[in-house]
Write a structure and sequence with these properties.
This protein has about 20 residues and is an all-beta fold. The chain has no helices and 2 strands. It is about 0% helix and about 30% strand.
């Protein structure tokens, strides 16, 4: 992950959205 979006959780096109995924 390279783009921290949610609370300390980085997400990208290859990762699953975790914790507060919209």
């Amino acid at each position: 992950s390279q783009d921290p979006d949610y609370e300390g959780v980085s997400i990208d096109a290859h990762e699953v959205r975790i914790s507060g995924a919209k």
